[in-house]
Amino acid sequence: MPGSPFPGSREENMEKIKVIIPTHIHHCAQLITGFLMLREQGWDIELVNRADDRHFAYHGLPCLFAEYRGKTLFYDVWDGYQDPPDMLKAIEVCDFYFKRSFSPEKNREIFGENADKVYPLGFNYYVTHRKNPVDEPLWKAMLRPFQGKTPARYFVPEVFEGDGRAPVHQPPKILFLARLWGREAWLEGDPANDEREEISRTRIEIIRSLREAYGENFVGGINDCPLSRQLAPDLIVPRELTERRHYLRAVHASDICIGSTGLHGSIGGKSGEYVAAAKAIVHEAFHYQVTGDFREGVNYLSFRTAQECVDAVGHLVEHPAEIAAMKQANAAYYQQYLRPDRLIANSLAVVDKALDD
């Protein structure tokens, strides 16, 4: 295939999977983890680390390539559609394009006649594998505890996974810890600056509303940064709570978790963590599609305003049986669609179906 990132591809061995890793970006850790888990289950998978190869055409981009059954697969974990040139470059050299932020309308607009190559990939969150070849080096991992942080290798699938049968607290515990973004000077004139400010305002309003409505049964706040000190210093929570390992403990101790839209309209990483932890979810309306049967009213309740968020939380608080059912639904969804090995295996099944039909 002209321009293929797989020179000398071994099409004679259809069962072997070759994976090219072009980046250290943490968004790709979930994909690498999935391939490594499948390799542990007996799949013939070779990982090629090109994250430090600055001459590679896709160096540093949030993506991954795989070769399977003589076809080239491209995995795109961009937040949205903010980099059309690189996306168009990739879709020309791949046979199957799996996209985290998936919109049929945007696919047709950007990819045109190649839109049929694009398939939804699903939720993305930072989960890794202890053999991930592009994780932080050991010396940096050893420094993390002295910096008040947890080494990346701690965040393997098991630390996220929750029991969907866990009993609901009475009254239910609600969680929303969020990050604020300000205007980035180096992005002056970029529309993303306006988006960052709108996201920050929305998150502040939601946290204030939930604090007022649920008091001590709500754990919520924002990170300590210059914008937080300027806009809502009273909502800043201690660093110990926002450090990722402690944050995950708070997730597991909660019943209802709140999700908000990320940059470029993306579904944020916390959303995938909530599903993995088998929580009831109240989430800002999705702009993009995910895989499988993730349904409003079953796996989550949606909102568009802070008041709608409070109302949705109130509905669940008044109906604890629905919280329990939603937890079980998300535990089942995780096992079928989101667990890293299932996410990758499901993408390979798309290829199998297309080639075998």
Keywords:
single chain, 357 residues, alpha/beta, 6-stranded mixed β-sheet, 5-stranded parallel β-sheet, 13 helices, 11 strands, 39% helix, globular
Structure characterization notes:
The structure is a single chain. With 357 residues, this protein is α/β, with parallel strands linked by helices. It has helices spanning 29-40, 84-93, 104-111, 138-143, 157-160, 191-214, 226-231, 239-242, 244-252, 269-276, 306-318, 320-338, 340-356, and strands spanning 17-21, 45-49, 63-68, 71-76, 96-99, 118-120, 174-178, 218-222, 256-259, 280-284, 301-303. The strands form two sheets. A six-stranded mixed sheet has the order 2-1-3-4-5-6, with helices on both faces. A five-stranded parallel sheet has the order 8-7-9-10-11, with helices on both faces. The two termini are 23 Å apart. Residues 7-13 have low confidence and may be disordered.
β-sheet strand percentage: 5-15%
Major sheet: arrangement of strands: 2-1-3-4-5-6
Mean pLDDT: 91
What is the CA-atom radius of gyration, in angstroms?
Answer: 21 Å
**How would you classify the helix and strand content by structural class?**
alpha/beta
Helix content: 25-40%
Number of helices: 13
Major pleated sheet: 6 strands, mixed
* CA distance, first residue to last residue: 23 Å
How many β-strand runs?
11
Q: Give the uncertain stretches in residue-range form.
A: 7-13
Element pattern in H and E:
EHEEEHEHEHHEHEHHHEHEEHHH
